[in-house]
User: What shape does this take?
Amino acid sequence: MSTHKHLWDTFADQHNIRDAWVPLFSTSTNGVVHTKKIGATNVRNILCRSDQMESLIIRECAKLVDDWTSGTHVYDGLLYIMAVEDVDGIVPLYIGKAESYGKKAGNLSVNIKGVERDKSKFARWGDNYAYHIGDLSAVVLPGHDPKHVERKYLSWAAELFTNAPNEQPVLTLKLNKTL
Assistant: This one.
């Protein structure tokens, strides 16, 4: 076993990644990712996060907001992992962090503030462009301005979907199941 795999497996076991796993997208039984329209003037389709993912982000961001408000400063952000499970176990596809602190010293980050009512930023998984769901939607769903298509999300789309771009994007088989 490689050192990297061993380190990852140890981390995943220590932090109960398998038990905390939730699906990223809301899907039909055949793996088609649900979409919704957003925007008042720039109406566009975006991919829908799963209810489980939204609940998890809201719950974890509430912990960060409470920590920041109370001044305890136990946490400095939210680590998130997009992963799949295969024969070798859980394989991370992307690991990121939504910081607790904003760009101005001592401010609460807009990425975690008010996520229960505003999904535009949503701990980096927001619906707007410059956030994961918005930018991935620009690649996966037709009708987005090409200026919002970024190389990173082209790679994500190739890994995550069998038929992107498409109005009814289908997850790859390895992503259709949840733990």
About this structure: The mean pLDDT is 91. The CA atoms of residues 81 and 137 lie 19 Å apart.
